[in-house]
Design goal:
Layout (H helix, E strand, L loop, with lengths): L1 H11 L8 H15 L8 E4 L2 H9 L3 E7 L4 E6 L1 H7 L26 E6 L3 H14 L6 E4 L4 H26 L16 E3 L16 H15 L2 H4 L8 E5 L6 H12 L3 E5 L10 H16 L2 E6 L2 H4 L12 H16 L6 E7 L7 H4 L6 E4 L5 H11 L11 H6 L6 H17 L7 H13 L10 H19 L7 E5 L9 E4 L9 H22 L7 H16 L27 H28 L1 H14 L1 E3 H8 L7 H11 L20
Parallel strand pairs: 1-4, 2-5, 7-10, 7-11, 8-9, 9-10
Antiparallel strand pairs: 2-3, 3-4, 6-8, 12-13, 12-14
Length: 676
């Protein structure tokens, strides 16, 4: 109860935090007050010419005069009668026998009326006053003063003050509002701290898939929870671990789960937060980050996208370099060596560009471990779908196994996008639950782009597209290593006028025949145009591009050419630059081999289509009628496919396995032995 009462008191009496912008407001208010400090808001004032000022004085309309010698200006206080003539807004309230601001005979007071003018010089002004005295028009006093108007000071020093204020404001913005605020916070760390007081805590339960990566990082959790178990045997706790993998695979989420499982403070910071335009700021932030980490030990420091600051030094020296980034990296290397291995501070970092990191950063003693977070396999994708479908209303038609099979190469972020897109599509059609077709449309939308039924195509174009896509489907159906067909459509989608969806095989190693079968199926669209339409068109551009790249990879990378066997010109370090690692004679041989491979697969595709002409034509005509065909249609025309896909074997094995609660360590994996 006491804790609740204290919390209620804190909510009722919130502390007002000091804001540095209050000072700016006070300065502005002071300037405003100083500008009007000498002004009388109840008076009337008018600037007149020297001639008009003389006319008013000669007619006895001025009671007394104040001369500002430093500005060569004079202010004359008007009598009541002159004030009424000069300022029509002044209404007579009672007969007046007095002048200026004195009480009249009824006790009322008229507003003060003043006319101001620029005098030629002090001598000429005194001569004019003497003339007015002799004529009896002016009997009042003349006072000589120096002007205290703030405008001179404002216009003289105002721009300097504005520049100072602008400089302070920019320094605060670039400094990021560190603990000290303003310019003093520029060198402070921008790391966000997540500890046990935060409501949002991520654990391994929230991370689907990544069984091997979880096993690696689980040891880090054990290091932080039970350090004596390792130190008693003379072991040293690793200083850091580097999470490497493609974007969207869950590296950041996995790092947060480590901190959540270990129940220790978690400092999160991006590598770009260290980089600043000011010299020494990045190094200062590194020092401040590690100082905070030592105070909070045991803890985890997570640096996301570390390649922003950890890029290899000395690269592209001729193109200019960023010395500030290198200084920041040097400080980071020093700090990682500066604390003990058993101090309880573990550094986690994530990047998808590990090849460009500095070697000094990757050595043992800094990042002792590299954990590769790869794209999810079939079993992992099923787990990820289950996680993201927790809050999505689905009906019985949704098959998670099929969704996992249809999303090869998808990262965890891509799968989350599929689930969200399917929910949006279902809501757009007014459905009460998300159905299977909504997920199919979401995958098509993400992979192929937006469907464009409004795009106008002629009858000849539709026929060409149908025969082209039917050629792909026919040839791939009769090849062992070609991807199994899922759906073929001639509805324009994205930049494509037609598309075929296949179920790619998730192989770790590609045999030579698999690449040749893929090239053959790619050439089938152009072959079908030539055989059944009598002409070829530009619709095969993407197919030809992919086939040519695959043929060049076979010859130059994989050493699969008959004339150039066991030779690879692939360079993982990309050190070739703008030069070719082979002679012009060898380049000619490479081109000839590529052309030979493509020609052979072209003739092979032609032979398959000739053998199955009737089935191809049936498939093409069905496409023209329905615009979309599925696996069932191809199976009805050609019969069951001879070869079972590897993905189907994995899925079948997982279905036959005993249905037990799965853990990250025994989640369904690839299921087949490594060919090596």
């Amino acid at each position: 109860m006491s804790n609740n009462s204290n919390n209620n008191k804190r909510k009722q009496n919130p502390k007002v935090k000091f804001n540095f912008y209050w000072i700016y407001g006070l300065i502005a208010a002071s300037l405003f007050l100083l500008y009007f400090i000498d002004s009388d808001f109840s008076s009337y004032k008018k600037d007149v010419s020297w001639t008009e000022f003389q006319n008013i004085a000669q007619k006895g309309g001025i009671s007394h005069i104040t001369v500002f010698s430093n500005k060569l200006t004079a202010e004359g206080t008007l009598t009541d009668s002159a004030a009424r003539k000069t300022f029509p807004a002044i209404k007579e309230t009672a007969p007046s026998k007095t002048v200026g601001n004195a009480p009249n005979n009824t006790g009322s007071v008229l507003p003060k009326a003043v006319v101001s003018t620029d005098i030629p010089s002090t001598d000429k002004f005194e001569e004019a006053v003497a003339a007015w005295n002799e004529s009896g028009a002016f009997k009042g006093d003349v006072k000589y003063e120096k002007s205290s108007d703030f405008s001179n000071f404002f216009w003289g020093f105002g721009p300097i003050l504005l520049l100072v204020l602008f400089y302070i404001l920019m320094m605060r913005r670039m400094g990021g509002g560190g603990p000290s605020g303003g310019v003093f916070g520029v060198g402070k760390s921008k790391a966000k701290l997540f500890d046990k007081n935060n409501d949002q805590k991520v654990t391994f339960v929230d991370v689907a898939g990544l069984a091997e990566a979880k096993t690696e990082v689980a040891e880090i959790v054990d290091f932080l929870k039970n350090p004596k178990r390792y130190t008693e045997l003379g072991g040293k706790i690793p200083k850091g671990a580097l999470l490497v993998g493609p974007p969207g695979t869950g590296k950041t989420l996995l790092a947060k789960a480590v901190a959540g499982e270990a129940d220790v403070p978690f400092f999160s910071m991006s590598g770009s937060d260290f980089v600043e335009m000011f010299v020494g700021v990045g190094a200062s932030r590194v020092r401040d980050l590690f100082q905070q980490a030592k105070e909070k030990a045991p803890c985890i420091v997570f640096i996301d996208e570390i390649d922003a600051v950890g890029r290899a030094r000395g690269r592209n020296a001729n193109m200019g370099g960023n010395d500030e980034r290198e200084n920041t990296l040097n400080q980071l290397l020093t700090e990682m060596d500066g604390f003990g291995s058993n101090s309880g501070v573990i550094i986690l970092a994530a990047t998808n560009r590990a090849d460009i990191l500095d070697k000094a950063l990757m050595r043992a003693g800094r990042f002792d471990r590299q954990i590769y977070v790869d794209l999810p396999e079939l079993g992992d994708r099923k787990e990820i779908f289950n996680v993201h479908l927790r809050n999505v209303k689905i009906d019985g038609s949704v098959d998670i196994d099929l969704l996992a099979r249809q999303t090869p190469g998808f990262s965890g972020a891509d799968i989350a996008n599929v689930c969200n897109e399917a929910a949006l599509i279902a809501a757009r059609h007014g459905k009460k639950a998300v159905q299977r077709q909504d997920f199919m449309d979401a995958v098509d939308r993400i992979v192929g782009g937006l469907e464009k039924r409004s795009k106008i195509t002629t009858v000849e174009e539709r026929r060409s597209i149908a025969y082209h896509e039917a050629g792909h489907a026919t040839v791939s159906w009769h090849l062992q290593y070609a991807h199994p067909l899922i759906k073929v459509t001639i509805v324009p989608r994205g930049k494509a006028l037609g598309a075929a969806w296949y179920l790619p095989e998730e192989r770790q190693i590609e045999p030579k025949q698999a690449i040749l079968d893929e090239i053959c199926s790619l050439m089938a669209g152009r072959v079908a145009e030539e055989l059944y339409l009598g002409f070829i068109d530009t619709g095969a551009l993407n197919d030809l591009e992919r086939a040519t790249k695959m043929a060049y990879a076979m010859v130059t990378f994989y050493g699969m050419s008959d004339r150039l066997p066991n030779v690879s010109y692939y360079d993982s370090n990309d050190s070739y630059g703008f030069t070719k690692p082979y002679s012009e004679t060898r380049a000619k041989v490479i081109d000839e081999e590529v052309q030979r491979i493509i020609n052979e697969q072209y003739e092979r595709a032609k032979q398959i289509l000739v053998e199955h002409t009737e089935g191809h034509n049936q498939l093409a005509e069905l496409l023209l009628q329905r615009e979309v065909i599925y696996t069932e249609d191809a199976e009805r025309i050609f019969g069951p496919r001879q070869w079972t896909s590897r993905t189907e074997e994995i899925l079948k094995a997982s279905e036959e396995a005993p249905k037990e609660p799965s853990t990250p360590a025994d989640s369904p994996q690839d299921g087949t032995a490594n060919p090596e």
